[in-house]
């Protein structure tokens, strides 16, 4: 009966009634004999409301002050959760990120955790109390200013604390039952995955599955910390994310044939756009100049393809995908370097979607690609860009073909749940 | 051009528009060459809303967690004020009570300031920035937990910081023009007092004037720190509270005759009730047993009167006043000790009011009492209890006579403003 770290998102603590329900669950975990550390996000829409308030005062709030403002949100939720536990007769103490020892760099709004020194949490646990910790926040090592961790910050806080406290498991509570083999709103027969390897979860997070953030999975993998993604609305087992690959027979809970290619899930992402730089002079270094210009505009590029250069013109086209929201600044950056590089044009296309097949088993099964592209061809889906890793195949298709592509691949790899339709899934990228 | 500490209450920072207005004023003070430290309360009704939230979760929120919750209110306002200053091109940094070095004891909800170590504030000022500090909060020296200072806490934070930083003045911004010679809703000709001694302000605060809290005036007096009470809606000079007595000719700005008894103001208070313990055996120690019982119920007694004991019965009546809100618990405590002490009955009367005349000049002018009681007699006001200090005379009268008593005394001491009616005054105890 070791330590359990539980993380509850904003929708799990949206109002007083939700907070009371969460408190019941926390108290039950404690009664079962565990030490419990709880990480909470801000209640419901609190963070958005605080951002609205800031924008009423200034169009460009400073990072230090915006972090100070936003961290009020978790301060409220953690105190209220601790009170609700007190009302159940369970001692709970709330701690800010700073009090919990979440030490970060000074990058306001997207701080990185440098160290976790949870001395006060250990004291609270030693006293038999439950520790409630504000997610998403920390304190800068250099300036002692309050910082926020940015997207996925509360999940990352939970995993970081769990690692520092050597917890048995980090439970991430959400409003869905776990990680699914596809978005059930597209594939009604998608099934809940009982178990995923870290690298599969990382690929899924990178490919549009929103249930866990890339960053928290990376952190968990580094410390081999098991994550259990589950619903705060039920007691069902969710999805375990661990370092035991699903191709390891001892972990194959479903008794499936381990010699079959093990494919976990189909992910999709409609948040990207495609930029094509037309007629790039085919000289060494031109592609690097293009990508440097885009990087300096603060944009992360995802997939890249360069077509074969035309013998007649000595020029090639380079296409890449990037977050839609970065499109304007990336195109502007490219326009600036156009005269120097001498390419012909820039095309911006936000009518695309990305569909990915993920599975740790595919690395040893050469037939996966063939099945994948057969399925797309049979469904009449045209592929614009292809990108692969050892455990993933991704394609860019027209946005309107995404649903059809997801369904075709899901069926082709026998991922459909034999027991019928899954519950509706709110956690992937639509 | 020294350091100015400014404190803005919740009504001065109620919404984004108010925050922007306050930021303009702060920026103007900085531009005038001052170093500026600003103490803010929570915006508008934030604190009440947070208390409501706590009550939805538990009827008895723990003190530690309630303080953690409530301090989110000032965290929001201080960050927003700092952002608004940033928007004006003025560098401002916000600090929590803990970051500002407000060290307290561990009495959650009513913590006392033990020490102020404003190292980070000094750094910010040295960098040319304005420091924005959360009022009402500190950090416990022993437990390192976040505390709140209770009633008058933000004013006290401002005065304590001003003292620790050796400020020229602590400006308390409010929604009235300063401290008045009486409540203008009762006395339309009441005038704004340009200057008051600490002890006069203390007596006024104790007698129902709500514009400054007793505790912050006591703190300012201990450090001889000038307080300037003024309106956040105008640039007019308000009321200076200093240790220069108004009988000191050098401080008599109005050129009045210093040989005249200097009377500052008439205060009134309708928040008290009167308890009469009837037929107390006239033996040494009985009064002490009564007041001990009331004190153990957590009640502060204000005025006390004991009538002459009856020769026939050997018994006397003891009356005292106390906050109306403490009436139930005080009476219950007395009922418990009634058999042991053997008094006859307890009467509770919440239909009273207290009217007080305050002025540092009255100590050397024996005619003051005569004029005071003449005025009440002429107005037909019956006096139930009398209490005096060197610079104050207070009487308990029927609640319905309070207005008449205030007007009669105000006129009798020539306090009416020769220039006519003052602006309406929202700061005293109605």
Structure description:
Two copies of one chain form a homodimer. By secondary structure, chain A is an alpha/beta fold. Chain A has a domain at 3-251: Acetylglutamate kinase-like (Carbamate kinase, 3-Layer(aba) Sandwich), CATH 3.40.1160.10. In chain A, 33% of the residues lie in helices and 24% in strands. Chain A has helices spanning 16-31, 46-57, 63-87, 119-126, 153-164, 198-206, 214-222, 286-296, 327-341, 367-378, 402-412; strands at 3-8, 35-40, 92-95, 102-104, 113-116, 130-134, 137-140, 146-148, 169-174, 195-197, 227-231, 239-242, 265-269, 272-281, 304-306, 315-323, 345-349, 352-358, 385-389, 392-398. In chain A, the strands form four sheets. Chain A has an eight-stranded mixed β-sheet, sandwiched between helices. A four-stranded mixed β-sheet of chain A has the order 5-4-7-8. A four-stranded antiparallel β-sheet of chain A has the order 13-18-20-19, sandwiched between helices. The first copy, chain A, is globular. The interface between A and B is large, with 37 and 37 residues. Chains A, B: It catalyses: L-aspartate + ATP = 4-phospho-L-aspartate + ADP. Chains A, B: ATP binds at residues 7-10, 174-175, 185, 210-211.
What is the topological layout?
The structure is a homodimer of 430-residue chains.
Chain A: E1 3-8, H1 16-31, E2 35-40, H2 46-57, H3 63-87, E3 92-95, E4 102-104, E5 113-116, H4 119-126, E6 130-134, E7 137-140, E8 146-148, H5 153-164, E9 169-174, E10 195-197, H6 198-206, H7 214-222, E11 227-231, E12 239-242, E13 265-269, E14 272-281, H8 286-296, E15 304-306, E16 315-323, H9 327-341, E17 345-349, E18 352-358, H10 367-378, E19 385-389, E20 392-398, H11 402-412
Parallel strand pairs in A: 1-2, 1-9, 2-6, 3-6, 4-7, 9-11, 10-12
Antiparallel strand pairs in A: 4-5, 7-8, 11-12, 13-18, 14-16, 14-17, 15-16, 18-20, 19-20
Helix pairs in contact in A: 1-3, 2-3, 5-7, 6-7, 8-9, 10-11
Function (chains A, B): Catalyzes the phosphorylation of the beta-carboxyl group of aspartic acid with ATP to yield 4-phospho-L-aspartate, which is involved in the branched biosynthetic pathway leading to the biosynthesis of amino acids lysine, threonine, isoleucine and methionine.
Organism (chains A, B): Motilibacter rhizosphaerae
Domain ACT (chains A, B): 275-360
């Amino acid at each position: 009966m070791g330590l359990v770290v539980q993380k509850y998102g904003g929708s799990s603590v949206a109002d007083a009634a939700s907070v009371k329900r969460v408190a019941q669950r926390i108290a039950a975990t404690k009664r079962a004999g565990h030490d419990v550390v709880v990480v909470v996000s801000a209640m419901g829409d609190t963070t958005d409301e605080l951002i609205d308030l800031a924008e009423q005062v200034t169009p460009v709030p400073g990072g230090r002050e915006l972090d100070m403002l936003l961290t009020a949100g978790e301060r409220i939720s953690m105190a209220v959760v601790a009170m609700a536990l007190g009302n159940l007769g369970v001692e709970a103490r709330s701690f800010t990120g700073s009090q919990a020892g979440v030490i970060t760099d000074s990058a306001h709004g997207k701080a990185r955790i440098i160290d976790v020194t949870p001395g006060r949490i250990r004291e609270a646990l030693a006293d038999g109390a439950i520790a409630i910790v504000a997610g998403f926040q920390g304190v800068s090592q250099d300036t002692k200013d309050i910082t926020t961790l940015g997207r996925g910050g509360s999940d990352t806080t939970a995993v970081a604390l769990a690692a520092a406290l050597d917890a048995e498991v980090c439970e991430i509570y959400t409003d869905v039952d776990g990680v699914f083999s596809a978005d059930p709103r597209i594939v009604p027969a998608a099934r809940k995955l009982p178990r995923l390897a870290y690298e599969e979860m990382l690929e899924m997070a990178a490919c549009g599955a929103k249930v866990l953030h890339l960053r928290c999975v990376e952190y968990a993998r580094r410390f081999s910390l098991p994550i259990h993604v589950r619903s705060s609305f039920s007691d069902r087992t969710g999805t375990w994310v661990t370092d035991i690959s699903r191709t390891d027979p001892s972990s194959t809970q479903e008794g499936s044939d381990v010699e079959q290619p093990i494919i976990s899930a189909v992910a999709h992402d409609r948040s990207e756009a495609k930029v094509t730089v037309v007629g790039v002079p085919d000289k060494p270094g031109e592609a690097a100049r293009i990508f440097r210009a885009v990087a300096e505009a603060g944009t992360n590029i995802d997939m890249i393809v360069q077509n074969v250069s035309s013998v007649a013109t000595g020029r090639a086209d380079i296409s890449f995908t990037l977050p839609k929201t970065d499109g304007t600044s990336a195109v502007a950056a490219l326009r600036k370097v156009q005269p120097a590089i001498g390419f012909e044009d820039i095309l911006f296309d936000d009518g695309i979607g990305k569909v990915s097949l993920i599975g740790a088993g595919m690395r040893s099964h050469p037939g996966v690609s063939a099945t994948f592209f057969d399925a797309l061809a049979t469904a009449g889906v045209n592929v614009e860009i292809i990108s692969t890793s050892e455990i993933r195949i991704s394609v860019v298709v027209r946005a309107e073909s995404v649903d059809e592509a997801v369904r075709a691949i899901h069926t082709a790899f026998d991922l459909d749940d034999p027991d019928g339709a899954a519950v509706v899934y709110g956690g992937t990228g639509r």
